[in-house]
Design goal:
It is a single chain. The protein starts with a strand and ends in a 13-residue tail after the last strand. With 262 residues, it is an alpha/beta fold. It has a 6-stranded mixed β-sheet, covered by helices on one side. A 5-stranded mixed β-sheet has the order 5-6-7-9-8, covered by helices on one side. Strand 10 and strand 11 form a beta hairpin. It has one domain: GpdQ, catalytic alpha/beta sandwich domain (Purple Acid Phosphatase, chain A, domain 2, 4-Layer Sandwich). 27% of the residues lie in helices and 22% in strands.
């Protein structure tokens, strides 16, 4: 065995105007200032993602932890979408994954509202990128270090409560392991909440991953108050199972709130 580089990405929400959007799908809006702002933001977000992925060099394993596409957008009347056609959204997500040029890909299913309530559109993505597996909840051993990966986790409305859900996932893993029904994990990976947070002790680490969807959805802007993180995580796992890791978080100029001047 040799050192392995693992990259974890999630929540592309491809198809949404601020989702992760490959260059072939970048929009050239002329309708109004707001839509032109989205077009600029798509380029900024892609530039960060693409340059960060390239800077990481050879990727042995890419873990894609759900919500690759945004879906039909029923709750906003599809008014936030580049395209409502899921086959096009799947094509975008495939290009996002292929940008990493990883040796191996493992995926988890995202939220049914986004990825299909009667069908699993992410299954088509997995087939197109030749993923080793896609599942609801996966345990992946890398040089003996076990990653416990699942998309969904509950959120917190207070900053000091964001650790709680991740720590709870760790405790549930320990209890399942005592029943001999799950492997005991070293690293718990969850996504869904679009913020980066982590907790742990000497023998374990639990985290929620940043999203690869930018700010600008109607739901987020009108109903949510917590900080949003855009980016990805990478791990280097040594031959003996020890590891180092680093978050890569963007500060995107187009996301900064503007003050009205009078």
């Amino acid at each position: 065995m040799s050192k392995k580089r693992v990259v974890i990405v999630s929540d592309f929400h491809s198809g949404h105007v601020v989702g992760l959007t490959p260059p072939d799908w970048h929009q050239h809006f002329t309708r109004d200032h707001q839509w032109n702002k989205f077009a600029t933001l798509q380029r900024q977000l892609w530039k960060f993602y693409s340059s960060t992925i390239k800077s990481l060099g050879k990727i042995d394993l890419l873990i894609v932890n759900g919500d690759c596409i945004d879906g039909r957008g029923e709750k906003s009347g599809s008014t936030e979408l580049i395209t409502v056609e899921r086959t096009n959204q799947v094509e975008m997500a495939v290009l996002c994954i292929q940008e990493a040029n990883a040796d191996k890909v493992v995926m988890t299913y995202g939220t049914p509202y986004h990825t299909g309530q009667q069908e699993d559109w992410e299954k088509h993505i997995a087939q197109d990128v030749k993923a080793d597996k896609i599942g609801a909840h996966e345990w992946i051993s890398v040089n003996g270090t076990i990653f416990d990966c699942k998309h969904h986790i509950s959120s917190s409305s207070v900053p000091y409560g964001r650790h709680t859900a991740a720590a709870r996932e760790r405790l549930w893993n320990v209890l399942w392991n005592e029943h001999e029904e799950q492997p005991k994990a070293n690293v718990i990976i969850r996504s869904h909440v679009h913020y980066f947070d982590y907790c742990g002790e000497a023998q374990w680490l639990a985290m929620t991953t940043p999203a690869l969807q930018g700010m600008g959805s109607k739901f987020g802007a009108r109903k949510c108050t917590g900080h949003v993180d855009f980016g990805l995580i990478h791990f280097d796992v040594e031959q003996d199972g020890s590891y180092t890791w680093m978050p890569h978080l963007a500060r995107v100029p187009g996301q900064k709130a503007q003050v009205l001047q009078y």
